[in-house]
Amino acid sequence: MSVQSKQNAIINGSGTIGTGKYDDVRISGSGRILGDIFCHEVKVSGSAKFNGKVETDYFNCSGSAKCLSDVDAKKMSVSGSASIDGKVSGGDVNVSGSFKTKGDLNVQSINVSGSMKTTGIVKAEVITVKGSLSTEKGSECEVFTAKGHLSMNGLLNAENVKITHGGFGYLPHNGFSYIPEIGGETIEISRFDDNNIFSRVFTKLFNNRLNFKSDVIEGSAVKIDYTTASVVRGDAVTIGPKCVIDLVEYTEDVQIHPSAKVKDVKKLEL
C-alpha cells in the first residue's frame, strides 16, 4: 500500500486502509478497509472489501466492491459489481453494472441500466429502470419509469407509474415481469413495441408469455395492455389489447378492448 499524503489513501497492489477521514480513497489493486471511513471520494477499479461504514460524497465502482455495513453517498455509480449488506442512503444512484443490497435504500434518485437486486425496500423521488430491478419489499417513489424486467414481492407505490414490458431484448428467464400490487395516481402499462423485424417475430412466437403480471392495480387513471391481473381499480380505466383481468372496478369511465378477457366489471358508487 502507498499513501500519497495524509488526506489520500491509495492501494495499487495489495493492502489495507484503517478507520479514518480521508480526501480520496482509491483502490486499483486488492484492498481491505478495516473500519469506518469518511472521505470525499471512493473509487474502486480493482477489488475492495469495506468492513465498516462508508460516508462519502462520491462512490464510484468500476471494479468489485463488497460493503459489510451502511453506505451514505451523495452520488453513487456502479459500472462494475457492488454488494452492500447495510443500508444505502444519499443522493443519486446510477447502476450500469451489477448492484446488490441487503438493507433498505433511501436516496434521491435511482437509474438502473444494468441489474439491481435488493432484499430491502427502495425509496426514492425518481426511479428509472432500463435493465433489471428486483426488490423483496417493494418500492416507494414519486415517479417510476421502467422499460425492462421487474420483479417485486411488495407494493409499488408511486404518484406516476409508466411501465413498458416484454419485447426483444427484455424478456426475463421466466417470461414476464411481476409486481403483486401497484398503487398510484396515473398508471400506464404497455408492451414494448419495436419495428425491428426480429422483435416482431420474437413477440409473435412468445406472445402468450409476454404479459405483465400483477395481483392488484389501483389508481386514479389506469391504462394497461398485455397485462394479467386479478383486480384493476380506478376512476377512469382503460383495458387494452390482450389483457386478462378477473375484476375491473371503476367510478367514472371504463373502456375494454375487444381482444381483452375480463370476467367481471363493476361500477363503484361514490
Describe this structure in words.
There is one protein chain. This protein starts with 7 loop residues before the first strand and ends with a strand. The chain is elongated, with a radius of gyration of 22 Å. The strands form two sheets. It has a nine-stranded parallel beta sheet with strand order 2-5-7-9-11-13-16-19-21, with no helix packed on it. It has one domain. The protein has 270 residues and is mainly β. Helices cover 3% and strands 62% of the residues. 39% of the residues are buried. The protein is built from one helix and 27 strands. Helix 1 (197-205) links the parallel strand 23 (181-191) and strand 24.
Q: Which terms summarize this structure?
A:
single chain; 270 residues; mainly beta; 27 strands; 3% helix; elongated; BacA/B
